[in-house]
Amino acid sequence: MPSIVISTLNARYIHTAFGLRYLYANMGTLQTDTALLEFGIQQRPIEIVEKLLQQQARIIGFGVYIWNVAEISAVIAILKQVAPDIIIVLGGPEVSHPPDLPSIAESADYIVTGNGEISFPQLCRQLLSGFKPTEKIVAGEMAALDSLASPYPHYTDTDIRQRIIYVEASRGCPFKCEFCLSSLDTTAKPFNLNGFLREMEILYRRGARHFKFIDRTFNLKVDSSVAILEFFLTRLSEDLYLHFEVIPDNLPERLKQAISQFPPGVLQFEVGVQTFDPAIQHLISRKQDNQKTEANLSWLRQYSNAHIHADLIAGLPGDTLAGFGASFDKLFALNPQEIQVGILKRLRGAPINRHNDGYQLRYDPQPPYAILSTRDISFTDLQRITRFARFWDLIGNSGRFATTLPLIVAEQPFTRFLQFSDALYALTDSTWQIALKRLFELTYSVMTDTLLITPAKAMTALEEDYSRSGEKSRPAFLQHATTLTAAKRGVANKRQTQHR
């Protein structure tokens, strides 16, 4: 039985805990005495505890993030009741910025802040030898990248077949955008490119085809970006899928040439636009050339097959409802396949927290700590934007309403869709668990009653979209239309017969 268990709770099964694999890879002589266990936030805490206790470990380390802190808190509460002698060690972003710590910190025996590849094994060696450090908080030690053992061999064959494979060609970020924890980094540091590509070749030969790069700025170093893209260009397959986070205003010609060679369905670019407002960009220390951003997004849509997932953040200090709407409209006009409307979250340690008082940033005290109100956007309007984001995913991002969406947004995308969202919520009192057929029926109702789109136009567009859904049963408004059409056809046939 292992003496050490490292664990976390993933948001979904398809996700893998990349940080745990790094930790496991760098346990040194303790690796054979360490077990890596992953769970999901949907699992019952008591069942997770039962599986953890089956390992009979002396130390359990948890990776704590904004999306799992509540669930891990429940797990640890049970562990402390039934196995109080087990030493609990926490790590991860949610517990790395003392004194700004969540209540789960009180239940831990030790906390490793920041990077754990060196500090966590050292702590475990001390604890297993009988020495208990007096300081509860252990500062994580930064390791040189070329000294780290590779995490990639610790993806299992099941991971490769069924789950996302996270990889990183560089670590850190040179930018200082205050809403992001990467702003605390000094710079971006690349891994050795040849060594990294050798690891990718091994994963590819093992069958990996879904690679998600977690580099904050994949296109920062163009030479490396082009080399990585060319590596995958020589290994194109029908099931290859590559996800990159890119900065929107850096797309030199060499990079464009590489991108343009990929067929549809391979590249997805997550493009953090966040806001087009120069005053807000300055306030939150975000350097972004808006003209280059617009030009690059336009080029990507016109001359590449990359799928663009563009991000905006609502609730930034100084932003207003109208201001956010202006950014949304500008981004919508650039026609990315997806617009992710994110709600500002309070990340512990993020520099944006310096604006909390001046801009009256008020956050939900429960994770994921979403912004509730600001000096310039009321609680009510932020709730409206939150619902807007959810309905936009269902209508705008899903691809299921390709013919209908232009009728909904017309010439005022944000204003019209906010009106649509408000009316849809008034009918449903919910943004979740809306069946597809019901969603089409509700959309028809809002289009005709609130947006005053003629029933004929709404019906034609929705029928075209619904026919592509594969659903067999027809929405009520289409059944009614079919009945009316049949009745009219019957009257016409009767008249023809009488005329004869």
List keywords for this structure.
Rossmann fold; alpha/beta; 500 residues; 41% helix; 6-stranded parallel sheet; pyruvate-formate lyase- activating enzyme
What is the overall silhouette?
A: globular
What is the highest CATH level, the class of the largest domain? Alpha Beta
Rg over C-alpha atoms, rounded to the nearest angstrom? 26 Å
The total strand number stands at: 16
Q: How many separate structural domains?
A: 3
- Report low-confidence residues grouped into runs of 5 or more: 484-492
CATH topology of the largest domain: pyruvate-formate lyase- activating enzyme
Ends apart, CA distance between termini: 92 Å
The CATH architecture term of the largest domain is Alpha-Beta Horseshoe
Main beta sheet strand tally, sense and closure: 6 strands, parallel
* Contiguous helical run count: 17
CATH-assigned homologous superfamily of the largest domain: tm_1862 like domain
Helix-strand category: alpha/beta
Residue-averaged pLDDT: 93
Which band does the percent of strand residues land in? 15-25%
Q: How are the strands of the biggest sheet laid out side by side?
A: 2-1-3-4-5-6
